[in-house]
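Quick one, T. Sequence first:
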Amino acid sequence: MNDKHILLVEDDETLQALIEKLLVTNDYVVSKANNVLDAKKLIKLFLFDLIILDVMLPDSTGLDFYEEAIKNRINTPVIFLSALSNVDDRVTGLELGADDYIGKPFDTRELLLKIKKNISKKQTLDLINFGNETEFDLKKEQLFFKKQIISLSSNEIKILKLLVNNSHQYLTRDLLNAELGLDFLSRSGDMQISRLRLKLKKECNLNDIIRSVHGKGYKIFI
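Structure tokens:
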């Protein structure tokens, strides 16, 4: 079973249904948005392995949404959907840093290949350096200090991955609790972050790498 989670942002209901069926048939987990507003809500709640993003959306453009909300997310590949004739949008998207594009109409085999390629590429860029000889391998889900593995619980691994992938912004309690499977009002996630901070300090000599701001959430500084 494929556990890769894809966000599909497309306002054409027929095309959205076609792509969703294709992805689900190939065992991907799919979340959908018809506009930028809904897409922004989803990226705050889930950590996606890839985003398929239409360039033309009813409330904004995929290009603006990418630049404002996605561009700085570590290891979140984006495939733009655009009309084959619209070269300017495709070039602009690639110049902004998007990973790929596919023109409408497209061959489903090509889309699947591009998805597989970009998710695989993401997985090769998953070694994050925290400084002080501390590295976190997102793919292997292991923390190293001076090349030695530091023992982490499954939730501590999830928290570190969330913090790294949201390092350009604050990790909200809603997103933290959603990813840990906790009730939205739970403070358990906060306590687990406190324990993770202590472990990074004691085991890796890292102080204040994870910081909190009241009303905003948590942020990792790397």
